[in-house]
Specification:
Oligomer: homodimer
Strand order of the largest sheet of chain A: 1-4-5-6-7
Shape of chain A: elongated
Order of helices and strands of chain A: EHEHHEHHEEEE
CATH topology of the largest domain in chain A: Multidrug-efflux Transporter Regulator, Chain: A, Domain 2
CATH class of the largest domain in chain A: Mainly Alpha
Number of strands of chain A: 7
Number of domains of chain A: 2
Distance between the termini of chain A: 10 Å
Largest sheet of chain A: 5 strands, antiparallel
Chain lengths: 145, 145
DNA sequence: CGTGTAAGGAATTCTGACACG
DNA sequence: CGTGTAAGGAATTCTGACACG
């Protein structure tokens, strides 16, 4: 068994993970001029360090832009899309927290790679493991080691 | 209950998520000249599209660079660090698969946000839910809806 | 309102060479 | 081997203006 490196878990919440405007535009399919306009209206934020004049975007913002874009594509106005995306943000944060808090350790079960997801409620001696068997993920309850 | 948008899950495996060399250097703490050298030795790959001469790096490569960097910091030679990182890659892919395959739906349990992680092995009528209660994640076994 | 474009300057990245060791 | 730097050119991003609607 080995610990999941802090760096790996951290990647998902790391404020250091940031993209330039070209990369964000590419990932999300939102144009650079849209991104600049949205920022001018305070719908999204970019990071500007004192050393650089160029925009950087955090992983959090990548998610926000994604959601806004999706609502736009569904036919909402920009302001409506922003509002709807706001609510989705809570869920993104939640997902990230599950990953960061719950992917406790990499291990093996019967020779298969597995992630220890920690104890099941009310059974502190039994943990849930996600196990990779034949390219399928299976959830199994096993004694905590 | 709402489906976890494909885009959100896809973000983690998306080939479109790519960083420039400056951003990768910033996230990982590895210098640009190191990244170029590692690529010249085929330890890592970058994406070069026909339109651009500049390097782009995938999320997969971000993870690889992270691991190599960590082993370097622990005192391994570059070639040893590359070999050790190679093995870790399997685990990264596995973690990603768990997230993509198992974060089935966003829902609520007793008014708390929750993620349906799917059935527990051998109990196809009972699913494991990750529930956010007081900033803590709890795993609970509940009837699948 | 929301997005695109042309323009000129600023910041970033490119390659190949060379230094150090 | 593995990394850094100075150099000049190429690609990217910047802002403010203007167009369209």
């Amino acid at each position: 068994m080995e610990q999941i490196p802090e760096e790996l878990k951290g990647l998902l919440g790391k404020p250091e993970l940031q993209l330039g405007i070209g990369d964000l535009a590419h990932v999300t399919g939102v144009s650079q001029s849209q991104l600049r306009y949205w920022e001018s209206k305070n719908y999204i934020q970019s990071i500007k360090t004192s050393e650089s004049k160029n925009r950087k975007y955090s992983l959090k913002t990548i998610g926000e832009v994604h959601f806004i874009k999706n609502f736009l594509d569904e036919g909402f106005t920009l302001t409506a899309a922003v509002k709807k995306a706001e609510k989705r943000k809570e869920f993104i944060n939640f997902m990230r927290k599950v990953i960061i808090d719950r992917f406790e350790a990499l291990t093996e079960v019967d020779g298969h790679p597995a992630i220890d997801l920690g104890p099941l409620e009310g059974q502190s001696d039994q943990n849930i493991f996600a196990i990779l068997i034949d390219q399928e993920i299976i959830l199994r309850l096993l004694p905590a080691k």
